[in-house]
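step: validate -> pass
step: tokenize input -> pass
step: predict -> running
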Amino acid sequence: MSYEPQDSMSLWWLGDAAPPQRIGTLSLQDQRRKVALSYEPEWMASPQGFALSEDLPLQRGLYIPDERDTAAGAVDDARPDQWGERVIRLIERPARLSLLEYLYFAGDDRFGALGVSLHAEKYEPAPVAAMPTFDGLTDMHQAVQRVMAGDAVNEQQRRLLQPGVSMGGARPKSLMQIDGASWVVKFSEGGELDSPLIEHASMQLARLCGIHTAETLALPLPQGHAVAIKRFDREGERRLHVVSAHVALRAAGEAMGYPELAQLIRRLGHPDQVRAQQQELFRRMVFNILIDNTDDHEKNHALVRGDDGFYALSPAFDVLPAAQGLGYQQMRVGAMGHESSLANALSEARAFGLTDAVARQMASEISGQVAQWKSVFKGLKVRDADIDLLAQYVGRHKR
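step: predict -> pass
step: emit ->
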């Protein structure tokens, strides 16, 4: 049955073993440039019901985002990003391409625990092919290359790409089942660096620095690699509610910065875990500075909601050198704004619940581990040419 554009759809909660529960209604507003949310009375009265983000309190009314081309609060994290939109345009080719279409065609396996249905009475997501297995990796890569070239894809290639359209970011990717678990598989955009293998190596280096990272696998291709990242929004068959730091900080009316996120954790996190969580965020900030990961924007940090209603940092993901030496982080670091320096990282240590002395000690420890990066990368078979290029940017001591 072909899709007929409509200006409202229903939003569903898929986070429990129980049948899907309707959260509310999504509707197009402001000349179809915004997606608003209104809660169902049943969701507000339900024991499972909760505010999806701080700017969507559990009250009657229509929540319309301030900015155009966005969805209200945490709903914005349920939509595809640049790569997913590209695949939807090429594969689905709907008669209209509003944000509501992108939300709908993201399908059932989208990031987080929200679902979108055309019907108010039942959860009926956009039909999506079954998730491919490891056997389909080479074919998946060929399908990705066709999309990047703007070429048409056949039905088999469509099935390989379709499940992954809701995963965030601009990099080409899809979803894959590995040993019964769901993984995001990311491919290189081309260029001289084997970026997927470098991402895998960077994540291993982060672990050596005491950072909690998502599990990764390097997957060899005929040329270069893909990198598989185990999904942290899934716990077995269960889906977890996740909000990006972008949505969480915007909802709180805060600037997009590390100190601001550290203070938000203080309010949203479990009281027994706040100190450890703030230290974890500080480690990530220092590590990103030292490896030249300047693409550390607020959509590359996330908070996962626990059964107790408190939020905790997701495992680190999308961590690798930008290899550009820009000297500025995407998120605000400290008193010197976005400047990529250890001095700036240490300048607002108190926001992370750290004394100056403890913060200096932690930064020193991380710096010592990052100094070993070449041997870690070599051990994971990163090419010598890539290591030589990265050496201009990684591990330089930034005071």
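step: describe -> The chain has a mean pLDDT of 92.
step: cleanup -> pass
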